[in-house]
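Bug: token stream looks shifted between consecutive jobs. Job 1:
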Amino acid sequence: MRTMNNNYISLSDIKKLETKIDDIYHYDEKIFISFKNCNLRPTAGGQLYDKGKFYNGTWWDIKEVIQKNNKILCWVDAKENNFKVNDTVLIDLDYKRRNAISRMHSAIHLISYLNTDKMTSGHAGYAKSRIDFKGDIKKFEKLFPKIRNNFQNIIKQRKKIIVKYLRSSEIKNVKEFYCTNSLIYRVVEIENYGTSMCYGTHVNNTEEIGEIFFDEPISVKDDIYKINLYI
């Protein structure tokens, strides 16, 4: 998981953002645009990239968002002569997609708190997500119905999902914590159930996670198994 600039993370909560084109790049025969400020997120922090569009006199769809050399770059399927550096633009986030990814991300956190096995990876997507655990799948299969039932009950309880910015000395009982060069760490807490270091987006409470469907656990290799989630 990559650490992100806190200013960028705060901007990512804005649905519509007026800004300027910072630069234009060519990668893999595609046109990418960087903006002075950007409210769209790349694939990072355990979740899939945003989509959206921007307006500079014409609406242009943003097909993908990547992070390269500490810049947020937006892929636009168009010719370079449609854009100029310092043009004022309005970026419009695809909020329906973002909200689905946020629901998935919060669901992954909640499942990881309910399962005593160690989570080895998780990825929040738009329609499908995945979470991997290290443990005995046979034992987990017996516990899975109870975990799934607890998950549904907690959603109904409307537990708060809180984002906090903490110094390393303030961090206690945080799951999946690892040290970085950052002075401030971003953690996400689900009220009464757990706290994890995380740079992704989340809904405000467990009720907003809504209806999530699960596959039965699937063995990946040796002592690793996965669960797929769907909206």
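Job 2, same session, no restart:
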Amino acid sequence: MAEYKIDNNAISNIIMEDIVNDIILGKLKPGDKLIEAKYAEKFGVSRAPIREAFNTLTIEGIVVKVPRKETVVKGYTNEEIWDLVRIRKFLEDLAFEKVVTNTRLTNLVHDLKNIESKMDMFNTKDYAKLNQEFHLRIISESESDVLIAMYTRMARLLLSLQLVAIMETKNLSNSHEEHKNIILMLEQGNILEAQKVLNQHNEAFLQNIKNHLLKKENEIFQQN
């Protein structure tokens, strides 16, 4: 049994990541019941952070409460997952349109460099989290509360999808170079070129998710 010497809020986040990852990977399917005792044993914690995790996921629409207070997986169709990743790209496109008008990018460049310096291509989970932090920092530069709120609301699902995309990628070096190039173009004041590189980066992400969804469809077809 794993022991986590951290506060309940951090434990809840770990549990939520675990559940969402299993949903995206198809290990948890729509209608599957989430059992508090199972996660309490898995993470070596009391049921309090488990309930907190379940409640938060219910608010986010990832799971649902049914009669007798059971919590079950809502699940996402392949079409809904595809919609989600396209929404991410659309939000980043809108954010960059606002960044284009910003002539003071010193803080943005500094922050992106700091995030990029921590990226380890051999630690996929940390890489996925830092990648998300990188993109969220660009979104925040738009100074649009609407864009930031929408992006943040999808953060948990997007992180799991980022992990899926990484699993479909044989080599993260291209992704890492694209991050560096985005920073370089911004540092040089070439915002339009930075946006072009970001688009290429996002297209690769979309393709990796598409490959994953096709594999899932093939697996389901073969099982039938």
